[in-house]
Each structure stands twice: as structure tokens, then as C-alpha cells.
Amino acid sequence: MGARCPAAGDRPAGPGHGGPAAVARRYDCQVAVQGNPSMTVADDPKPRALVDVAGLREAIAQFARERDWEPFHSPKNLAMALTGEVGELVELFQWLTEDASREVARDPVTARRVRDEMADVLIYLVRLAAVLEVDLDDAVRNKLAANARRYPIEKARGNANKATGP
Ligand SMILES: [Mg+2]
Fold this sequence. Notes:
With about 170 residues, the protein is mainly α. The protein has a domain at about 55-135: MazG-like (Helix Hairpins), CATH 1.10.287.1080. The protein has 7 helices and no strands. The chain has helices at about 20-35, 55-65, 75-90, 100, 110-130, 135-150, 155. The chain is globular. Mean pLDDT is about 80; it is low at about 1-25 and about 30-35. Bound molecules: magnesium ion. Magnesium ion binds next to helix 3 and helix 5.
């Protein structure tokens, strides 16, 4: 059994509200409240993965190993390749109106191109994370918790303004 979720009347614990673990637990609890209140991620002794990339990471590593491409996979090269693939994805939306951009999935050819570029982006991102030994699940969990702190629901609901300050 994990730590209990804070109740509505609970006071935040100490300066900084308890550090990353406490922030992550509060995020888990927010997820539970929006989903199934009777079961929280915090109650799970083996938390579910937010991003399950282990199989993908190994498949990409094997792909590179079989082609002897590992020497080319420096963080610099991978970051640049990732940026290139993001550019290819963005290009598919360039000059479209807001409404047209919402309709791209209706055209099978464009939908396929969007899907392919999204896959390229993910492949390079996962490969970059593997080379840099970044645990993507942990990184995503921490960033979501930080975003939840930065954009509290009561202030951010229906408001796309970017937060200012630290
Ligand atoms: Mg591509």
C-alpha cells in the first residue's frame, strides 16, 4: 500500500511542498481523482509505466547494431535528426488553416504521412534518451508533476496563457 492521497483540507507539508516525490504523488492522486477514485497509482506497489519504451528502445538499438550505425548515434547527431523529423512533421501542417489542420486525419495519404513522421520523432527521441541514459518514464512523471504545480487547475482551466516566473 502506498502513501495515502492528501485530502482536500490537508496542508502542504513544509517548504517547497515536500519535494519531487510528494509532487509526483499529488499528481498521481489527481490522475486517480479524474479516473477511478477507488484506485490510485500511489496505492500501486508497482506503479504502472506512463511511457512504456523498453521494447521500442531495444528494437531501435538492434536496428542500429545490425547496421553498425552506433558510431553515428552521438547525442548531437540524434538531437539534430530529431529536430529534422519534427520539421518534417510540422511541414505537413504548414500553411493549413486551424480548421484544415484538424481535418488532416480524414485524408488517408496525409494521415499516413503524419503518422510516419510522428513515428520518426518518437524513434529518435527514444534513441537519444537511451544514449544519454535518460529514463523517459521517470522524466515524464517528474515533468507532468512540475507542470501540474506550474499550472494549477483552478488557474489554468480554459486558459492557454503560458505561466511566467520560475
Ligand atoms: Mg521522416
